[in-house]
Specification:
- Helices cover 28% and strands 13% of the residues.
- The chain has 413 residues and is α+β, with helices and mostly antiparallel strands.
- It has 2 domains: 151 residues, 2-Layer Sandwich (Phosphorylase Kinase, domain 1), CATH 3.30.200; 212 residues, Transferase(Phosphotransferase), domain 1 (Orthogonal Bundle).
- Strand 6 and strand 7 form a beta hairpin.
- Helix 5 runs antiparallel to helix 7, helix 5 runs antiparallel to helix 11 and helix 7 packs antiparallel against helix 10.
- The chain is globular, with a radius of gyration of 21 Å.
- One of its GO terms (biological process) is defense response.
């Protein structure tokens, strides 16, 4: 399956120059740590007091004993995913009484149990409640409730049966068959709509940790953004940016944010460009298992994205034949725009959504450019990677997909 070089960025001052590993990609390829910030729609600006946040949220307050029973005492075989701030467990509750239910009955939930160490985990726990407790949108994961009891801090989410985009793109196995071109574009559009909603909220939100492991997929392949622990309120009034300590995930953060600590909605757009490129290529943003010169996906792929002859070097061979050259070039051009070094040249997320909607409605014949591909595409070496051709992407078994399993992330502040 290979190694996941996912590294979450530790918070430091913008002028700090040392790189610290966290959960997102390999710190070896980044010269600075980052701090990412964000904000909400119609939510009072953060930070707020714990009492104010909990009282104003539209969430269910759970008893620890109920969640303990719902997850079968947090049994290891109930673990859906693990991160630096805790583990996520599968559980069952009564959909009316919200009390623990027998496994296989009632409402399926995902319960995140935070580690009981450090203040950063508590801050992220509060941020999740602050944002997801106020928002409702088809492309944001639903937060059902929370538990605050003595030292215990837990969050209860809707269960996303197909797990994370990261798993579908990068994990190998009989269950995780490669997503088709059509489903990749569907997931990209859903995730883009989620970001656009946040950016257009009454009080703008900057998500600041957009990556494949934070994009969850439901049974119908609808994408939903999860993990709002690093989200912050955007700039207000005549301010052009939010100054913040650099936090986030290596490989996804915008260059100007890394250099200055100045955060804007265009920082999220850059991260979207990285994820779109991962979806087009089937490669991780950073992967030192690749040959020299191909460790950093953006640096390696950028020169090919605008070229009819070179674009096929980037595109995932597992979805060959499922798109036209025109569709591939439009998607690649969108990624290129999002990855502009100058933030002001990146499109706003509304424009990204419009472009992806056009791709969804494209009338081009997906297999019409077979001859074009043979002419323009470099010939694969007989010793190069070979992929089993699959037409579909829907898992054949009824087994539940694994939840995201990002690398462990450190405490930030």
């Amino acid at each position: 399956m290979g190694i996941c070089w996912s590294v979450r960025i530790k918070a430091v001052s913008p002028s700090h120059t040392s790189a610290t590993a966290s959960v997102g990609v390999n710190a070896k390829f980044v010269s600075k740590d980052f701090d990412l910030s964000g904000s909400t729609g119609s939510v009072p600006p953060t930070p707020r007091s714990e009492g104010e946040i909990l009282q104003s949220s539209n969430l269910k307050s759970f008893n620890f004993s109920d969640l303990k029973s719902a997850t079968r005492n947090f049994r290891p075989d109930s673990v859906l995913g693990e991160g630096g701030f805790g583990s996520v467990f599968k559980g069952w509750i009564d959909e009316h009484a919200f009390t623990a239910a027998k496994p296989g009955t009632g409402l399926v939930i995902a319960v995140k149990r935070l580690n009981q160490e450090g203040l950063q985990g508590h801050r992220e726990w509060l941020a999740e409640i602050n944002y997801l407790g106020q928002f409702q949108h088809p492309n944001l994961v639903k937060l059902i409730g929370y538990c605050l009891e003595e030292e215990h801090r837990l969050l209860v989410y809707e269960f996303m049966p197909r797990g994370s985009l990261e798993n579908h793109l990068f994990r190998r196995g009989s269950y995780f068959q490669p997503l088709s071109w059509k489903l990749r574009m569907r997931v990209a559009l859903g995730a883009a709509k989620g970001l656009a909603f946040l950016h257009n909220a009454a009080t703008q939100v900057i998500y600041r940790d957009f990556k494949t492991s934070n994009i969850l997929i439901d049974s119908s392949y609808n994408a939903k953004l999860s993990d709002f622990g690093l989200a912050k309120d955007g700039p207000v009034g005549d301010k052009s940016h939010v100054s913040t300590r650099v936090m986030g995930t290596y490989g996804y953060a915008a260059p100007e944010y890394l250099a200055t600590g100045h955060l804007t909605a265009r920082s999220d757009v850059y991260s979207f460009g990285v994820v779109l490129l991962e979806m087009l290529s089937g490669r991780r943003a950073l992967d030192k298992n690749r040959p020299n010169g191909e460790h950093n996906l953006v640096e390696w792929a950028k020169p090919c994205l605008g070229s009819k002859r070179k674009i096929f070097r980037v595109l995932d061979a597992r979805i060959e034949g499922q798109y036209s050259l025109g569709e591939a070039l439009k998607a690649a051009d969108l990624a290129l725009q999002c990855l502009s070094v100058e933030a002001k040249l990146r499109p706003i997320m509304d424009k990204v959504v419009a472009t992806l909607e056009q791709l969804q409605d494209s009338k081009e014949v997906t297999r019409s450019s077979h001859n074009e591909r043979n002419v323009n595409r470099p010939i694969r070496s007989s010793t190069g990677p070979k992929y089993r051709r699959r037409n579909a992407i829907e898992p054949s078994s009824g087994k539940a997909a694994s939840y995201p399993r990002p690398s462990a992330s450190p405490l930030y502040e």
